[in-house]
């Protein structure tokens, strides 16, 4: 396991996994809408009412992308990968609640651990890139996903971009979002400190596109935005 992978999985321990479903929906206004639209974008790209197998990278926590895709396309099946055992356990609970474990293979680990001779019809990478420190680990995970996709297969990439401190108005609006949800002044300050120190998002939308291009993906279409967060659909250029 690389140092970047160890750092990523170490962030998501039992305490974080237990609060993830609630916290993520506050931190990202439109959390469910983003996942719903991700499913719609993949269905629009792949075509509807057909069988497909989707690679879901960083599936731990809510498994919301799988839940949304499965509801829209009953013939789709999923391979869920996450390096954090507590987060993957939380995802399994949500999948069980939606009767989706029979349509989902769950793997504790990384994309590179999967069989190399299996190529997927599409993939998602939601809420992952900004947790990887530096550009090279971001390129590496995108490139690894690219090698596991069929030619022309779509990929959803979603996560924070911008250096947080470079966008003071967005940062303050993000703080107000927490206050809106009942956080005290001290709690808001703690959240601000955590976001400023705890992640390394790409510094612009152009930087996100550059990372995708360098990993072998085509120009992306942006379909969702919420403060620092963006979501794009791109396709394997091979």
TrEMBL record:
<dbReference type="GO" id="GO:0032259">
    <property type="term" value="P:methylation"/>
</dbReference>
<dbReference type="InterPro" id="IPR029063">
    <property type="entry name" value="SAM-dependent_MTases_sf"/>
</dbReference>
<keyword id="KW-0489">Methyltransferase</keyword>
<keyword id="KW-0808">Transferase</keyword>
<dbReference type="GO" id="GO:0008168">
    <property type="term" value="F:methyltransferase activity"/>
</dbReference>
<feature type="domain" description="Methyltransferase type 12">
    <location>
        <begin position="60"/>
        <end position="154"/>
    </location>
</feature>
<dbReference type="InterPro" id="IPR013217">
    <property type="entry name" value="Methyltransf_12"/>
</dbReference>
<protein>
    <submittedName>
        <fullName>Class I SAM-dependent methyltransferase</fullName>
    </submittedName>
</protein>
<dbReference type="Pfam" id="PF08242">
    <property type="entry name" value="Methyltransf_12"/>
</dbReference>
């Amino acid at each position: 396991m690389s140092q970047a992978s160890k750092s990523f999985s170490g962030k998501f321990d039992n305490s974080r996994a237990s609060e993830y479903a609630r916290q993520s929906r506050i931190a990202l206004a439109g959390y469910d809408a983003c996942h719903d639209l991700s499913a719609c974008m993949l269905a629009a790209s792949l075509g509807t009412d057909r069988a497909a197998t989707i690679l879901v990278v960083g599936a731990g926590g809510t498994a919301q992308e799988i839940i949304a895709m499965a509801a829209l396309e009953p013939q789709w099946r999923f391979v869920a990968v996450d390096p954090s055992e507590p987060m993957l356990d939380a995802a399994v609970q949500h999948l069980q609640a939606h009767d989706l474990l029979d349509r989902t293979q769950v793997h504790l680990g990384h994309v590179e651990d999967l069989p190399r001779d299996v190529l997927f019809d599409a993939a998602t990478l939601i809420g992952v890139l900004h947790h990887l420190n530096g550009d090279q680990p971001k390129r590496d995970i995108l490139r690894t996903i690219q090698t596991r996709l069929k030619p022309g297969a779509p990929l959803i990439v979603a996560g924070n971009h911008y250096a947080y401190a470079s966008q003071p108005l967005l940062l303050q609006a993000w703080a107000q979002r927490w206050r809106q949800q009942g956080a005290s002044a001290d709690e808001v300050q703690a959240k601000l400190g955590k976001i400023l120190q705890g992640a390394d998002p790409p510094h612009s939308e152009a930087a996100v596109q550059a990372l995708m291009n360098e990993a072998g993906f085509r120009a992306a279409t942006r379909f969702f935005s919420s403060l620092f967060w963006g979501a794009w659909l791109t396709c394997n250029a091979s």
